Amino acid sequence: xxxxxxxxxxxxxxxxxxxxxxxxxxxxxxxxxxxxxxxxxxxxxxxxxxxxxxxxxxxxxxxxxxxxxxxxxxxxxxxxxxxxxxxxxxxxxx
Length: 94
Known about the structure:
This protein is α+β, with helices and mostly antiparallel strands. The protein has four helices and four strands.
């Protein structure tokens, strides 16, 4: 499952507020597939959380997003604004 699809899964599957152990039991085995790298499960990610109870699907999703690894982020250090790292020896010519 892709990470953005999890919010809908949480809303359909769980009744909120919900304790962390119920989340792990109900949807913890769901595999998350990153764009690059190894997949993981929702349970493996949520186990790293200190939150004991989630108030809503959005709350659970936000927690999941804050805990997933770099493989879910996309291109690291990508900047679509065109800025380039500069040092004293770099020269850009247009």
